[in-house]
Amino acid sequence: MTTAPNASTAAPTVRPGSVPVPSSTGRLGQGELRRKVAAILTDRPGEMFTPGEIARSLDRSAGAVGNALSVLADRGQAELAATGPRRYRATATTADALKGGRTSAARTAHPTTATAPAPKAASAPTPRTAGASGTSAKVEKPVVGPVVRPNGQTYHPRRLADLPDVAALRRLREASIPAMLYGPPGTGKTSLVEAAFPDLITVAGDGDTAVADFVGEYTQAPGGGYEFIYGPLITAMTEGRTLLIDDATLISPKVLAVVYPAMDGRRQITVKAHKGETITAAEGFYVVAGHNPGVHGAVLTEALASRFAAQIRVSTDYDLARVLDIEPRAVRVARNLARRQESGEIGWAPQLRELIAFQKMSGVLGPEAAVANLLGIAPEEDRDVVAEVISSVYGRAVAPLALGQQI
After folding, report:
1. Tell me, what's the pLDDT at 146?
2. Which of 385, 291, 378, 294 is nearest to 339 (CA)?
3. How many CB atoms lie within 10 A of CB 286?
4. Cα separations (Å) of 396 from 206, 330, 387?
5. Residue 194 — pLDDT band, cuts 50, 70, 90?
6. What are the tens digits of pLDDT across the range 37-82?
7. How far is Cα 81 from Cα 406, in angstroms, rounded to an integer?
8. Contact (CB, 8 A) for 218 and 51
9. Whole-angstrom Cα distance, residue 56 to residue 15?
């Protein structure tokens, strides 16, 4: 694990002008640090600042300021103008952050956080309990019809415990009940979480995910020194946001253990890499995980399962596939293969992701190519059964999509 070098930074001090400087020991309310950072950028338009420069002006940690700048950049309210070291400057909409506004601009790349893009719209706001600033909780509007995800695509809610699934997940968050969504890849687990929580931060798990990918690490600062940049877990904790651990069961159990203290009654973690600092979760902090049981290397340990009191199976909604005008015969093929998968005859069946890709392929290369490609993406060990089902539905023999004779 990386430790901090002794070298100190030598960056110039920000001249904040009329910007108020808070005490380093005072606890800020929800979004207050972002507003103070935005005030400095607005006060000095055209100038570029590192997180460390602004942090010294506000008497706050460089990591917290770095996260605030990253969020502002996500929302189009700041611009990452340089990366070596990172320097930010104001945009035409930075002033919107002073009153809590946001834009729909695409996310600017950030080296250590995994923050989801800011939402363009949503049919209902994310529920909030009273935050550190003492503000009242927002009243949640009923979820009616499709919900717009941060990428602009629509999500069609499904029924969960007599509620729209989006509303059900929001209620679990209000009750601080962590949820794990499990099912085959392509069934819409991530889409559901994005629709439910516009304030989402995502960690994409795999076998190489390390503790630093959650809590952060030291990075070079101006003047040759180093500063600690907080990771997505600490960002979600301090800002009271939702953290999605996608493909959680691909991550080493030793690495995942860093999250557990934040999920239980302590709601705290100790950042050993940063002077043993203790981080306490703000109101609204919530953890949700995704699990693909059939993926090679996915291991659901007892320790991980026990942390998620709500475990929700997510499968493909073939009725939704028809609503999306996907070719009916392709949907019949998928339903047939899904039944065979459930019986254990095969290990693969097309999910909604594959059916949407089928429809796109059909529009680009034609229906015959789309059918051939559907067979071609099937695993080798299941391909004979998939070919049999496709042939029975389409009434002709089908081969995987391949190049033909020279033309």
Report:
1. 87
2. 385
3. 27
4. 41, 14, 10
5. very high
6. 999 999 988 899 988 888 888 887 666 777 678 778 877 888 888 7
7. 49
8. no
9. 10
DSSP string, 70-90: HHHHHTTSSEEEEETTEEEE-
Cα separation, 302 vs 363, in Å, equals 45
Helix (H) or strand (E) run with residue 365 in it: helix 352-365
Within the chain, what is the greatest distance between any pair of CA atoms? 76
Q: Which of 116-125, 206-215, 316-325, 370-379 has the lowest mean pLDDT?
A: 116-125
For residues 18 and 13, what is the distance between their CA atoms, to the nearest angstrom?
15
> Which of 60-64, 222-226, 332-336 bottoms out in mean pLDDT, i.e. has the lowest?
60-64
Query: Distance between CA atoms of 366 and 59, rounded to whole angstroms?
Result: 61
Q: What would the two tokens of residue 115 be?
A: 């923050």
Q: Which long-range contacts (CB under 8 A, 24 or more apart) does 163-166 make?
A: 165/192, 165/196, 166/124, 166/192, 166/195, 166/196
Is the Cβ–Cβ distance between 55 and 112 less than 8 Å? no
Q: Does the pTM exceed 0.85? A: no
DSSP character for 112? S
The conformation of residue 111, written as its DSSP 8-state character, comes to S
Indicate the average pLDDT of the chain: 82
- 83 pLDDT band, cuts 50/70/90, is low
Amino acid at 96: D
